[in-house]
Amino acid sequence: KVTKEFIQGLPKAELHLHLEGTLEPELKLRLAQKNHINIGQQTIEEVKAAYQFDSLTSFLQVYYPAMNVLQDKEDFCALALDYLKKAKEHNVKYTEMFFDPQAHTSRGVPFETVINGYYEATLQARKFGVEANLIMCFLRDMPAESAMETYRQALPYRDKFIGIGLDSDERNNPPLKFTEVFALAKKDGFHITMHCDIDQENSIEHIRQALLEIGTERLDHGTNIVEDPSLIAYIQEHNIGLTCCPVSNSFVVDDMKGKEMLELLHQGIQITVNSDDPAYFQSYISDDLYALAQKYELSQDDVVQIAKNSFGIAWILEDKKKEYL
Ligand code: HPA
Ligand code: ZN
Questions:
Q1: According to the annotation, is 54 in a ligand binding site?
Q2: What range defines the domain where residue 314 resides?
Q3: Which of 97, 164, 301, 305 has the smallest C-beta neighbourhood within 10 Å, fewest atoms?
Q4: How high is the ipTM of this complex?
Q5: Tens digit of each residue's pLDDT (9 = 90 or more) over 188-211
Q6: Is 276 known as a binding-site position?
Q7: Which ligand is nearest the CA of 63, by number?
Q8: At 183, which CATH number?
């Protein structure tokens, strides 16, 4: 039997983590008071009670309004730093953290406030032994023009993030909607990843577009790929991994999708386990891995392989990976 302590102690990389999804009720209340923002709740218990969802859509409806409490650079820094301290407790050596600039610029917060705050937290985390990089995500339910404008806004800060991702509501927002901006980002030397959420109307077509048309280097979620052996062969050949989030899945589709993860893992696909939005799903990375291990009776070898995969598909130099393992 794999214990919680064993899982927590394993060196890990976390690669699917939305910084805006790390907003714990305590910080939300503190920032609401500091910035004089009425969030409609007065106590931790009330905030927690409002964290209720049973689908991606209902989750996003709680998630975006909460971000109002984030106003200045210090707020963004505090949010990321709280997560990075938690990551340290879970023996996360390295993390690539998503952030959603449009969720902030659309309500009047300058791009530079967001990126400078988050980046400052990565500098501080390095001092306590957690290495972190940023991945800028576009909100796929906003127009392609907005993504392009965001990309242009970001270019002066290009040294502060290493990759580009795609998140938010996937319905009717296929990868191909963003062909132009991803092609540009790729040409500029950024890494590329994108969400292919669980059980979408066109999951396989979206995965196909992400892999073959956009040229993504990873799939965030992406377990519907089990339905298409030719796409599995493709990611095997190109060493493209999946960043899976079992507890998040159990909230939004009522299924951890552990069966699919294990099937792929045992075919040698680089499956990783991550927390997605840990404050909302009340589950940090070790909790996710433990929940999966318990429910699907993972062997110690499976768990170790998953941890190794997280470094395997991280966007860091091979020498660094050896140092962490
Ligand atoms: N999917 C899409 N958008 C998101 C997610 C997710 O898992 N988490 C935060 N924004
Ligand atoms: Zn996600």
A1: no
A2: 4-324
A3: 301
A4: 0.94
A5: 999 999 999 999 999 999 999 999
A6: yes
A7: 1
A8: 3.20.20.140
